[in-house]
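>> Question from a student workshop board

For tomorrow's exercise we were told to take the sequence and the ligand below, predict the bound structure, and bring the output to class. My setup keeps failing. Could a helper post the expected result so I can at least see what it should look like? The ligand is pyridoxal-5'-phosphate.
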Amino acid sequence: MNTEKAYAYYLDQQDDLKNFRNEFYIPDKTIYFDGNSLGLLSKRAEQAVEAILSSWKRYAIDGWSEGAHPWYYFSEKLGALSAPLVGANPEEVIVTGSTTTNLHQLVASFYKPQGKKTKILADELNFPSDIYALKSQLQLKGYDSSHLIQVQSQDGNTLDTQSIIEAMTDEVALIVLPGVLYRSGQILDMKVLTKEAHKRGILIGFDLCHSIGSIPHYLSDWGVDFAFWCNYKHLNGGPGSVAGLYVNKKHFGKEPGLAGWFSSDKEKQFDMEHTLTPADNSGAYQIGTPHLLSAAPLLGALELFQEAGIKQIREKSLHLTNYLMELLEAELSGYGFTIANPIDDETRGGHVFLEHKEAARICKALKVDSVVPDFRTPNGIRLAPVALYNTFEEVWQTVKILKVIMDEERYKEFENKRGVIA
Ligand SMILES: *Cc1c(COP(=O)(O)O)cnc(C)c1O
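>> Workshop helper replied:
Here is what the output should look like for this input. Compare the format with yours to find the bug.
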């Protein structure tokens, strides 16, 4: 392991994606390693917002059909642009709603309890919002939360594929799992899980919040039934950006569980009939008028992914996280840190997850020293060096700063408690 700063410089020079950093607004004198919570603003995203604003200015109501990006087709357009990131056909993806509302929509559409098959299978490590949504969907169908099976983790951080498969009993109607776990960054084997679910006649969907824009997916090839994600993390779509969903084309032509006029076939929508003719693609899972201003940044943000290529992004991301782990091992072993993300390239997502009993205040000390990590209760530090805008030098700097914080016990100046948002 070469721990010299010169080596970090060398890696940056070799980096084929290095010029993408210039596309972003990097907060001044900051090492931003929190792109897995909120990605940075790019100049392209900013221009895209300006383009939508100016179409409003220029065309008013006619912006729905006029200009470079007619609003009426904007969600479909962004869906098609997102499709390569999840390995789907353009008409299988739509940009709409939020992660959680999309999950509600998809469960309302695909959870059809019948006979003995009445349960939903999830896991105990998923993001709370997903679990709340699943429990409330069960309630709407008249079941209590005993109908939600949550696969247990052996080590508190990761899930075992075999345990998930064993939980696919003949009582399970639907499975919802993350593609990448939000704390440990573990990638689940979506291909194998889908195959095993289908063998048992169970529908399966994935939450891709932490995997889209970070790893490649092949949802269509894998035959995944549905997926959903937010666009403000790795995709840099901006705070509260409109989310995305995917529905496999074998399910096209069905009624959505939660209908609205934007579920319509676009040619029929303005016939104003009281009987819905749903779109014969993923557009059927939209509900109401799209939030154009919160979708706009994605147009520019997705362009950057197209240009860089998700395979190249993944390659650099693995290199960055590997370099970070090696430096942590070399410089900070014996300081009470545990690398709690999967180590191997196959199952390691886009961030490094460190556990330390003083994690909350170490994060505060890092922030004071201009490194932005994020804290995950009770003892986790997530560090996400992002392929499109972070550098190897920043990884080197961060480890150096962390070592000073630990050597000088600078974290003791802070309370070991999370902030309201952490
Ligand atoms: C970020 C995240 C969410 C957030 O849901 P919103 O509806 O966008 O607030 C949900 N699930 C997972 C797994 C996440 O990582």
